[in-house]
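Handout, page 2. Input:
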Amino acid sequence: LFRSNCIFIIDSRGIFTLNENELLKRHMNYAKSLKNQANIELTILTSSKNVYKEWNNENLKILHFGTNKRFSTKFISNAIKEICKSNYYKVALIAGDPNEAFVNALIIKYFSQLKAKKQIKIQVQIHSDLFNPNFRKFSLVNRLRYLLGSVLISKANQIRMVGITQSNYLRSEEHTSELQ
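Output:
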């Protein structure tokens, strides 16, 4: 992305949970390496009901607010408040999908930049076969998710694909000329 002071993971769908030890351990290690290597803070903003209102360890901060919905005005407004009150000028938002989380991240970015002078970039992560031609044939919902993702993907500052297959599908769709 760019040299940010803080990374906020946007989990508006409430997928993150403290009950899943492997997931928590992975994020704690990620936060520790960010802090040690680049002095970057990691905060997870989640709507998961399995997270206390606020959870901290020395490297990772997890904040729970909003309800576990695809789009929650409470989640979005609390995320904006949290980002604006932070002492960080350069902020990176990570959206875990190119649909709901990414739309939320775009809204959060827009209003956070209006409210406070912050440089905000968004990384969208693609963990599914969203751009696989067979994915959109399964259902009308998948077709709509594909169309929404296709339109929005160009708004990302960075795209992270979890596999080479997804990357190849995205390249073949010509949504972006350069993938990192």
